[in-house]
Amino acid sequence: MSNISQLCVILGDQLSADISSLKMANKQECLVLLAELQDEASYVKHHKKKIVLVLSAMRHFAQTLQAQGWQVRYVTLDDPQNTHNFTDEVARAVAEVKVDEVLVTQAGEYRLQQQIDSWQSSLGCTVRCLQDDRFFASIDDFAHWADGRKQLRMEYFYRTMRQKHNILMEAEHPVGGQWNYDHDNRKPPDKSVPIPPPLRFAPDQITSEVISLVASRFADHFGDIDPFFMAVTSEQAEQVLQHFITERLVNFGQYQDAMLTDEPFMFHAHIGFYLNCGLLSPVEAVRQAERAYMEAGAPLNAVEGFIRQILGWREYVRGLYWYHMPDYKSLNFLSATHDLPAFFWNGNTDMHCLSQSIGQTQKYAYAHHIQRLMVIGNFALLTGLSPEQVNEWYLIVYADAYEWVELPNVSGMVLYADGGIMASKPYAAGGSYIDRMSDYCRSCRYKVKLKTGDDACPFNYLYWYFLDKNSELLANNPRMGMMYRTWAKMSDDRKYEIRNSANKFLRNMS
Ligand SMILES: Cc1cc2nc3c(=O)[nH]c(=O)nc-3n(C[C@H](O)[C@H](O)[C@H](O)COP(=O)(O)OP(=O)(O)OC[C@H]3O[C@@H](n4cnc5c(N)ncnc54)[C@H](O)[C@@H]3O)c2cc1C
Ligand code: SF4
User: Fold this and answer.
1) What is the pLDDT of residues 266-314, one digit of tens each?
2) For ligand 1, atom 43, which residue shows the shortest CA distance?
3) Which single residue of 123, 141, 325, 504 has CA 20 to 30 Å from 339?
């Protein structure tokens, strides 16, 4: 290794052939470092499936790099020399190989970036930390957009991004004349529309070895490994995207919010895992969807809805995260302190919507957006669960969970813990929303039409209890005015029944 002068550090969510650090590296003089770290796999007890996905994808990525002529230092989880700490593994490589320069792409998560920022003074060589140019907007681009604005609403950021990147635009106007087709995208589920099953990949030898390793080493972590059928290479991830574009995109828009019993995947894309670890390019996903509209007649409401998720929401939450960290993590505007109920870890609850959403999370490390937001999230909001515990739960249970995307969705969108930085009002709802958008209520022990009492849907009384409890903080919100006026008009008896049912429920939950 005498000719080696550069060390290129690749993190577990940087598995992209065109990552900026690799682009800057000189192949002949560079050693690429990938390390499987116990610290990273267990700083929260990640779902076993997520660990399998990331480790298998790292091993496949290292193989691809080697086949392309890169020299790779790959530290496995069971290597006795492995320190299992990110900075220590980099320091060990620098000391052994004696490089002049370390190249790294900026980390997705704040805590890892802090470690990278300390390297220049601790490693004794030059450290170049490069922008992550896999996103449409850099962290500075977002800050530039956000500076001086009173409110940071996603919709306006999204429009700026559409214009800047010329996506679904006709000159300076949005195609079809509207920026947003959400009003076409709220249909309840229709059982007569067949749902194409997701693409499945049988585990190859590398994945099978990782499965055994994870089963023995992380046995106490949440979730099932079997069945494992996720993509673990960029080629497979691109097939998943292609499959979505040809099979499910057509119905993605209209049934985006719909939920059905024992149908975890619906018409969603199931690509968040791959976008977030680097196997799939967000730019490619957006461009392919745009082409499906321009060249293959895919419906505009579906294409625009899908593009908004990636070009809008995904970019926006990343920008918001970096704009407000580290303070964002400790925000608790509503002073919520309840512990997570035990059923969050096993789905054992009579509330059918929750047992479905949590049960499939356990099995697949996946739930779609409305299950995360309007079922599990809504419950966490209404019952006043502690933001710290809820954030940790969401970070643990989903295979696409990384703090930069998880935290704003949980503390901002779900819990209103940021006091309105992200959402203009809490996404609180009673049972009728879930009844309208799913078939869950039909087979639930609770009755969604009942408002109070032991048989009533808990969301119904918890909704009013939440408004009542937080009235000092929320009653002046102009978007909540109507609900508070309705509450004010209720009789004292009615209010008493609501408070009584809610208190009983919360006592039992504890
Ligand atoms: C409480 C809560 C926690 C969440 N935690 C995560 C998380 O840890 N990681 C994560 O990637 N997404 C998270 N999301 C956003 C969203 O639920 C998932 O991205 C989506 O369900 C992933 O499934 P999919 O690939 O089938 O997405 P689709 O519905 O098919 O959407 C396509 C893509 O759009 C992007 N997207 C959609 N909505 C959002 C959003 N609100 N924020 C950011 N990107 C979005 C994702 O990259 C997603 O893969 C969370 C949402 C909520 C309400
Ligand atoms: S009745 Fe209430 S608890 Fe039961 S599935 Fe419907 S919304 Fe969920």
Assistant:
1) 999 999 999 999 999 999 999 999 999 999 899 999 999 999 999 999 9
2) 314
3) 325
CATH (domain of 120): 3.40.50.620
* Number of residues that this document lists for the chain: 510
Question: Which protein residue's CA is at the shortest distance from atom 8 of ligand 2?
Answer: 353
* Three-class DSSP category at 194: coil
**For ligand 1, is residue 356 a contact (CB within 6 Å)?**
no
Residue of 314, 374, 379 with the most ligand 1 atoms within 8 Å of its CB, for mutation? 314
* Enclosing domain of residue 388: 342-509
Angstrom distance (rounded) from CA 381 to CA 375:
10
Are 87 and 182 in a shared domain?
Answer: no
Q: Strand 30-35 relative to strand 71-75: parallel, antiparallel, unpaired?
A: parallel
Q: How many domains are contained in the chain?
A: 3
pTM: 0.97
Among 182-186, 379-383, 390-394, which is the least confidently predicted range?
Answer: 182-186
Whether residue 67 is found in the same domain as residue 143: no
Same domain, 316 and 380: no
